Amino acid sequence: MKRVVLLGPPGVGKGTQAGLISEKYDIKHISTGDIFRANIKEGTPLGKKAKEYMDQGLLVPDELVCDLVEDRVTWDDCKNGYLLDGFPRTVFQAEAFDKFLKERGEDLSVVLNIQAPYDLLMERATGRRVCKQCGKTYHVVNMPPKIEGICDVCGGELQHRSDDKPETVKNRLKVYEDQTSPLVEYYTNSGRIANIDGSKNFPEVFEKICALLGE
Ligand code: AMP
After folding, report:
1. Taking the CA of residue 208 as centre, how many other CA atoms within 13 Å lie in the half-sphere pointing to its CB?
2. Which is deepest, 70, 83, 92, 140, by most CB within 10 Å?
3. Domains of the chain by range and CATH?
4. Angle 88-90-96 (CA atoms, 0-180°, nearest 5)?
């Protein structure tokens, strides 16, 4: 049973690696960003609240996030393990989730901390395109689809996420630095972190991750 956290700034390739990891190890990929985006699309009350923050590149308040994840990891599809992508994002969330795990006699298997230099993160995040239908991510230069604007997998239309615009990405990187990067120290102190160089290409990063997670 693997319980993995993917930690890293916007644009570092968390989503891409998460897809590969969840497939190889057969563990559920849980992206809080995807959950919020699905709620926005459906126009739910949670989606309406989250949108106000997301459009500005700000974090959604902790109380809207913690309960959601604590519920989600107890679903049947997480029986074999899960991979959290985009959660926790604050020390408050990390502490709350640790408390939740502890009460269940559980712990995280590992926190994969993926890092890359600022300019590369800007380039990756602003060039990202996401399939409207299935959520697969591409990059206009590094990972283009076979036909421009169309998803290779499902034929859906690719879109530029509204929070992947340069000004919003700048905000998201600042928010990461201020609110999420303290988690590196938090998880290092409890000996659960593995640092990974995310400036390498995606297959190389994945290889490193597999070496850490085992066969
Ligand atoms: P992501 O797709 O992970 O980059 O998330 C997109 C946006 O969703 C973030 O910029 C936040 O506004 C919001 N979000 C996702 N996960 C969290 C979280 N754990 N805590 C607070 N806000 C979040």
Report:
1. 16
2. 83
3. 2-116+176-213 (3.40.50.300)
4. 65
Tell me, yes or no, if the pTM score tops 0.70: yes
Report whether residue 54 contacts ligand 1, using a CB cutoff of 6 Å: yes
Residue 35 CA to ligand 1 centre (angstroms): 9
Q: 102 in helix, strand or coil?
A: helix
Alpha-carbon span 148 to 44, nearest angstrom: 32
Which residues form the catalytic set?
A: 14, 89, 128, 161, 172
Report pLDDT digits (tens) over 127-179.
Answer: 999 999 998 889 998 899 999 999 999 999 999 988 889 999 999 999 999 99
Q: Residue 104: which region, alpha, beta or left (left: phi > 0; alpha: psi -120 to 50)?
A: alpha
- Number of Cβ atoms within 10 Å of the Cβ of 10: 25
Integer Cα distance of 81 and 95 in angstroms? 20
